[in-house]
Write a structure and sequence with these properties.
The chain is of the alpha+beta class. It has eight helices and four strands; from the N terminus they run βαβββααααααα. The protein starts with a strand and ends in a 5-residue tail after the last helix.
């Protein structure tokens, strides 16, 4: 069996989600660089892997996938290693709800409207940042309300929900506003401190 291949860039939140799942499952994989922001555009060959030119894409023994949640569920179900989805239907539904909430309401606000705007713009749009922080607060409130008792979002066991949330919040706390807002949610802040210390998180950190 060939090792799975992840197509994408190490700066990408969603590429990192897939890589975290592979790391936590103990799977050796290859990262093939694809820079969707390259000056000369997205490589033409890559559209055979993702028709919309987004990252990540994934391949395993000729089986191709795109969309992060499809990839992470496949990795969890197709490979040996610790199970990353709850067996209980309701817990699994909550996991999927957290992932869907993060995708729909947290990612854009936390990563692009706050962190990228603050870090990469010479003249940041303060109104956009303020709106992003309002949305981020609502997202953190929702995450706190859904978090179970225990070290991880679903309780005692690490799941795909934790590995989906970690890179999003990891980007958010690169800026002071993100750190300050996260500190208002003690349970999520404690969870973040815990997951940021996992070896998988340091191994998937962007180089440089």
């Amino acid at each position: 069996m060939n090792k799975p291949v992840v197509y994408g860039a190490d700066y990408s939140v969603y590429v990192r989600i897939v890589r975290l799942v592979l790391e936590e499952k103990g799977i050796d994989y290859e990262l093939v660089p694809v820079d969707v922001f390259a000056a000369d555009g997205i490589p033409r060959w890559y559209f055979d892997h993702h028709p919309f030119g987004r990252i990540p894409a994934f391949e395993h023994d000729g089986f191709r996938l795109y969309e992060t949640s499809a990839i992470t569920r496949y990795v969890d179900e197709a490979f040996d290693g610790p199970a990353l989805q709850p067996a209980d239907a309701r817990h699994r539904a909550t996991m999927n709800q957290i992932i869907g909430m993060l995708d729909a309401y947290a990612y854009r606000a936390m990563v692009w409207d706050v962190a990228v705007e603050r870090l990469e713009k010479t003249a940041p749009d303060e109104a956009l940042i303020a709106a992003g922080l309002r949305q981020a607060r609502t997202a953190l409130q929702a995450l706190s309300s859904l978090k179970a008792e225990g070290p991880w979002l679903l309780g005692a066991e690490l799941t795909l929900a934790d590995l989906h949330a970690a890179p999003i919040i990891g980007y958010f706390v690169k800026v002071a506003e993100g750190q300050s807002l996260l500190a208002e949610f003690a349970d999520i802040h404690d969870w973040w401190t815990r997951i940021a210390q996992r070896p998988s998180f340091s191994r998937t950190e962007k180089a440089g």
